[in-house]
């Protein structure tokens, strides 16, 4: 059980890390309209079964690991994932994604595009960095619990 949990935590940490160090940096180089369109497509594409297994797997498996083999490390890993990954995603990233998805670039002027990007980009990136660090923390704490 812990091995599967660690694998899923490693995968989701890698996803968030890749977004933090490459995807969002590449998108940052785009003009506003292209940035918004690309991010809308990426948000749609990431909603797939493979991502959901990695994202929701630890949500289910971490509490099971705590229940089966209680340790403070597993409890801390669970809290880090629930608060820093799930909580931040639900309260922060998803509302921002929904806001961006509802925005139509068709007919939007230069200033509207700039404003939408300004409302979205910095906040979303900061929240993703938090998710990256918290998922990494959960991964490391679960590894510590393996010893």
Mind explaining what this structure looks like?
The protein has about 150 residues and is an all-alpha fold. It has one domain. It contains five helices and no strands. The model has no long low-confidence stretch (mean pLDDT about 95).
Q: Report the sheet with the most strands, covering strand number, pairing sense and barrel closure.
A: none
Q: How are helices and strands ordered from N to C?
A: HHHHH
Q: Roughly what is the average pLDDT, rounded to an integer? A: 97
Overall shape: elongated
Q: What structural class do the secondary elements suggest? A: mainly alpha
Radius of gyration, rounded?
17 Å
The total of helices stands at 5
Total strand segments: 0
DSSP strand (E) fraction? under 5%
Estimate nothing, just give the exact number of structural domains.
1
Distance from N terminus to C terminus (CA atoms, Å) equals: 14 Å
Helix amount? over 70%
| Parts with pLDDT < 50 across at least 5 consecutive residues | none
Describe the structure concisely for a colleague.
By secondary structure, this protein is an all-alpha fold.
Helix-strand layout with pairing:
Elements: H1 2-28, H2 32-45, H3 49-68, H4 72-102, H5 110-145
Features:
147 residues, mainly alpha, 5 helices, 87% helix, elongated
């Amino acid at each position: 059980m812990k091995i599967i949990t660690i694998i899923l935590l490693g995968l989701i940490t890698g996803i968030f890390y890749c977004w933090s160090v490459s995807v969002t940096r590449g998108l940052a180089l785009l003009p506003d309209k292209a940035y918004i369109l690309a991010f809308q497509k990426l948000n749609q594409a990431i909603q797939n079964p493979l991502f959901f297994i990695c994202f929701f797997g630890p949500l289910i498996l971490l509490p099971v690991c705590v229940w089966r083999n209680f340790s403070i490390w597993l409890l801390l890993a669970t809290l880090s994932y629930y608060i820093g990954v799930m909580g931040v995603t639900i309260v922060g990233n998803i509302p921002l994604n929904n806001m961006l998805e509802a925005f139509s670039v068709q007919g939007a002027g230069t200033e509207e595009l700039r404003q939408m990007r300004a409302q979205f980009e910095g906040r979303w990136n900061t929240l993703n960095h938090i998710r990256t660090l918290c998922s990494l923390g959960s991964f490391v704490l679960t590894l510590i619990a393996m010893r």
